[in-house]
Amino acid sequence: MPVTKLTNFLSDEHIDYVTISHTTSYTAQETAASAHVRGIEFAKTVIVKIDGKLAMAVLPAQFKIHLGLLKQETDATRVELASEDDFRGLFPGCETGAMPPFGNLYGMDVYVEDSLLDDEEIAFNAGSHNEIIKLSYQDYMRLVQPMIARFTALH
Q1: Mean pLDDT over residues 97-107, rounded?
Q2: What is the value of pTM for the model shown?
């Protein structure tokens, strides 16, 4: 079942979305394949520390985050991957590593890789390793209001 905090938020905002169940998977590319979603449409959430503050970096499943580019884009002094211990308790109701890219629900800044702008829909983990949510990218942008940046190695 998708994380209640997210589904309540989407319902309160009158957002149309689809929940897709799939076989349990732990990597973004496996999840996209299991849910029959193109990797470019499936967004993975990577938790980073930007000058010591936790933030979400959201990028297509098959791309790799480039911390140097994210550092440049954010004018930060230091950008690094957060460890699971850094964020494990911050996403109640979510399995570790399956948090949805809605930092606004958790008091975190969100940075979205600009290549995701090319798609009409976005799909992402729904708080578990066996369900995703798919909704319009326009609705996602309106609700989350992320900062758009280029921070992947595949550009």
Answers
A1: 93
A2: 0.90
